[in-house]
Write a structure and sequence with these properties.
The protein has 263 residues and is α/β, with parallel strands linked by helices. Helices cover 48% and strands 15% of the residues. The chain has helices spanning 28-43, 77-97, 115-118, 149-153, 155-164, 170-175, 188-200, 204-220, 223-244, 251-262, and strands at 4-9, 12-17, 49-54, 102-106, 109-111, 123-127, 131-133, 168-169, 181-183. The strands form two sheets. A six-stranded mixed β-sheet has the order 1-2-3-4-6-9, with helices on both faces. The protein has a three-stranded mixed β-sheet with strand order 5-7-8. The longest helix is centred in the last third of the chain and has 22 residues, at 223-244. The radius of gyration is 18 Å and the shape is globular.
Length: 263
């Protein structure tokens, strides 16, 4: 079964994460296919708006770490850094800067690496049951690779969710401006589609310039430099794990996410 589905209707490209049996956990292959879908939508002149959604109960439980990294006998900090620099940092920044408006539709759990899928989108529509969390401090790492936390939540709320590992509800996320709209779960697809089609009626060059103006303002304030810098801080966590007990310590995150998904 395809891990990523892609369709275009009324100038809106919909990209769907399609691993519902695994809560849309992200394998390397899924991320490569996802990047290809974003690139396809960016290049299609008939597409004006991009929607990202997930099949099943949950938007995404984050990185699928079981068997998705280098072979145990070949693990070095360099190998981890190389993989993550491309698939986690490069991909997310590219999706953020695609010159077309994008909307994430989020339901259920959005854990750790799941944030790296919705945060690059320009708008987020959340179901009432959506929960956003980054519990990787439990692993001895200060947060996921794409550090949008401070920008999306503000410094104090960002510290709180990182320090405690607790989830932010859809209502909380809307209050701090991370989420644009909170809707009943059964209305998530309809509301997101209507919003995408409304935006698709606008002048495409005007949309491109409006997006660039906002993103460029954030970059002038330091967003791009901060994300690059914190990515390197993230890698010190991997270095510590390797020096203390080796790469298998990372599998603890999958075990922890399995518990969170069952709650």
């Amino acid at each position: 079964m395809d891990q990523i589905l892609y369709e275009v209707d009324e100038r809106v490209a919909t990209i769907t994460l399609n691993r519902p049996e695994a809560a849309n956990a992200q394998t390397m292959a899924l991320l490569d296919d996802l990047d290809a879908a974003w690139t396809r939508a960016a290049a299609d002149e008939d597409v004006r708006v991009i929607v990202l959604r997930g099949n099943g109960r949950h938007f995404s439980s984050g990185h699928d770490l079981k068997g998705s990294g280098p072979a145990p006998d070949k693990i070095t900090l360099e190998s981890i850094y190389s993989i993550e620099a491309r698939r986690y940092l490069e991909y997310t920044l590219r999706w953020r800067n695609i010159p077309k408006p994008s909307i994430a539709a989020v339901q259920g759990k959005c854990i750790a690496g799941g944030l790296m899928l919705c945060w690059p989108c320009d708008l987020i529509v959340a179901a009432e049951n959506a929960q956003f969390s980054d519990p990787v401090v439990h692993m001895g790492i200060g947060g996921v690779e794409y550090h949008g936390h401070t920008w999306e939540l503000g410094p104090r709320k960002a510290k709180e969710i990182l320090f405690t590992g607790r989830a932010v509800t859809a209502e909380e996320a809307e209050k701090v401006g991370m989420v644009n709209r909170v809707v009943p779960l059964d209305e998530l697809e309809t509301v997101t589609t209507e919003l995408a089609r409304q935006i698709a009626q606008m002048d495409p060059f005007g949309l491109r310039q409006a997006k660039r103006a906002v993103n460029q303002t954030l970059d002038v304030q330091g967003f791009y430099a901060a994300v690059q810098s914190v990515f390197d801080i993230h890698q010190t966590g991997h270095g510590n794990a390797l020096s203390v007990s080796g790469y298998p310590i990372l599998v603890k995150l999958d075990e922890m996410k399995d518990r969170l998904k069952s709650q």
